[in-house]
Amino acid sequence: MWPLSPKWRDPLTAPGRIAVSGTGLRVRLLGEAARSVVFIHGLGASLRYWGTAYDQLAGRSRLVFVDLLGFGGSEKPIAARYDIAGHAERIADALREFGAERPLLVGHSTGGIVAMALAAHDLPESSVIGHFTADFKQENDDHVLERARQLAADDERAAEIALFEQIVSRTDEGGKGVLGMDDTLLALVEGQVDTIAVEGLTQEGSQCLNCDYLSAHKFRRCPICSGTECADLADVIEKAIERAYSSGSRVNIVFDGAEELLQSRGGIGALLRYVPARRAQPSA
User: Fold this and answer.
1) Cβ contact 148:50 at 8 Å
2) Residue 177: inside a domain, yes or no?
3) Are 63 and 176 found together in one domain?
4) pTM for the structure as a whole
5) Are 11 and 65 in contact (CB under 8 A)?
6) How many domains does the chain have?
7) CA distances from 190 to 95, 176, 193, 272, 275 (A)
8) Which of 131, 152, 178 is a domain's end point?
9) 153 FRET partner, CA 20 to 30 A, in 4, 163, 206, 281?
10) In the chain, beta strands by DSSP E
């Protein structure tokens, strides 16, 4: 997390980069987290309005501060639409351009109306996770930001439960899904895994240094290649996650309600890229 610093009370002086979108909007991008929080100011203001908001969310989210067309450092063309729909369309184009997927929108005054219009706008490969209204005369910044965090946390929890249910459904139907330590590790070794879900467990195991086979069981001779160059692992799950990242698989570490659900089915599972030929697990 960035350190809190009085010299960064202005978003323009905080670490990050300034860009101008193809539609002429000045955009301040701070952080590289997967979740994007987009701040939209009201009339007569600019992205400087948001003060210390970046201090509260830095390191947890990718922050996107936008100057509406005609304000701040954005272009000020005479022949342009300055209505709510026009502002929303330009911001949608900018978010698409800068890869801000599944944004949480925060708007002040007229910026809140623009945010509502943007929420209804079609954002390819993106979706707005929700919205709430805030009275900045009655609520302080910390309270509003905590509500925003809770909205994002609820969405993430729902997504994790939906992933678990999808894995269970595909596994029980004998399709593109696996659950449990042995089946998931074997699918990972064979390159079948599209998305792996795991809760915060640790598990000892072994690795074949010849063919890279992983198992939650200790072995001295690899059950796949019969090699004898084997290593004990203090945590085979950590090695599995490394393997997943290196092979282009998505990794989802689940928490809260989804964690208990996954524990009930072995603590680990995966969606597969294809339906594997069914065969017995190799004996350790």
Assistant:
1) no
2) yes
3) no
4) 0.56
5) yes
6) 2
7) 37, 14, 8, 11, 12
8) 131
9) 4
10) 17-20, 26-30, 36-40, 62-66, 104-107, 177-179, 193-198, 205-208, 214-215, 230-233, 250-253, 268-272
